[in-house]
Every structure is written in structure tokens, then in C-alpha cells.
Design a protein that fits this description.
Layout lengths: L15 H20 L14 E7 L7 E7 L2 H12 L6 H23 L3 E4 L9 E5 L5
Antiparallel strand pairs: 1-2, 2-4, 3-4
Helix pairs in contact: 2-3
Length: about 140
């Protein structure tokens, strides 16, 4: 993935040194997830199943490297439509959320085995994501 082609918005961005570190973390993270046999979405292709590795270059507490699992788009669409329709007890919502949570926790363990520091995101805009804050020094 060409991380450098990401669009920068009109907000404070991290220094070039931190940008480089985030790019390294994201690339290492993507490679570890793929080595585990899990699919990683390429170039923001949100119509596919798998892990999305996102870099937020913002120079604030919400910046960093995040991973979000995306289940089958058909399930995701049914769950989203259920929310839109106010059917909050629809099984698709529970199933979609549970899949994302279980996969987040599994990916955290995979990354921790590779000596990364990864934990559930505390960002309310990414409630089922994980955050990777560091990778092994030799990476």
C-alpha cells in the first residue's frame, strides 16, 4: 500500500520523523497480519473482508496507527440498515459487533506475539479498532 498517497486534511500533522515512524509501524503491522493468514484490505478497499490498517497523521491524541476488522459486507450492510431503521435488537448488529471485537482481540494477540505494543483503541470514533503504538526496535 502506498501510505504516502494519503490525503492530508487541513489540521496539524505530525513531523516528518513521526510520519516515518508511523509508516514503519503500519507496514510492519500489515505484514504481521498477512503472515498470520488474515487478509488486509488494499488501498482502502472497504468492500472486502479483512483488516484495514489506517494511519492518522494528525498531531493530536487521536493520531497513530489503527487496525479495524471488516466482516462480510453483506452482514455489515444488514447491520447498518437495522440501525438506520431503529431495529437495535436485530441479530445482525450483535453478530457484526461480536465478530469485530473477537477479531480485534485476536489481532492484538498476534501483534503482541510479534513484540508489538497493541491494545484496544480508546478513540470513540474507532470503538472496535485496535491501536499499534510500537513495533520491535529492529523492524
Amino acid at each position: 500500500m502506498d501510505w504516502k498517497s494519503l490525503v492530508e486534511f487541513d489540521y496539524g500533522v505530525v513531523s516528518s520523523e513521526i510520519r516515518s515512524a508511523l509508516l514503519n509501524i503500519a507496514t510492519f503491522t500489515r505484514n504481521i497480519i498477512q503472515q498470520a493468514g488474515l487478509s488486509v484490505q488494499v488501498d482502502g478497499e472497504l468492500s472486502s473482508v479483512g483488516a484495514e490498517v489506517e494511519i492518522d497523521f494528525g498531531d493530536d491524541a487521536a493520531g497513530g496507527v489503527f487496525v479495524t476488522w471488516h466482516a462480510d459486507p453483506a452482514l455489515t450492510e444488514v447491520a447498518a440498515q437495522s440501525v438506520s431503521d431503529g431495529r437495535f435488537d436485530d441479530p445482525s448488529i450483535i453478530q457484526s459487533g461480536a465478530i469485530s471485537e473477537v477479531m480485534r482481540d485476536a489481532i492484538i494477540q498476534i501483534l503482541q506475539l510479534a513484540k508489538c505494543v497493541a491494545e484496544p483503541s480508546n478513540d470513540d470514533m474507532r470503538p472496535l479498532a485496535l491501536r499499534v503504538t510500537s513495533i520491535p526496535p529492529s523492524s
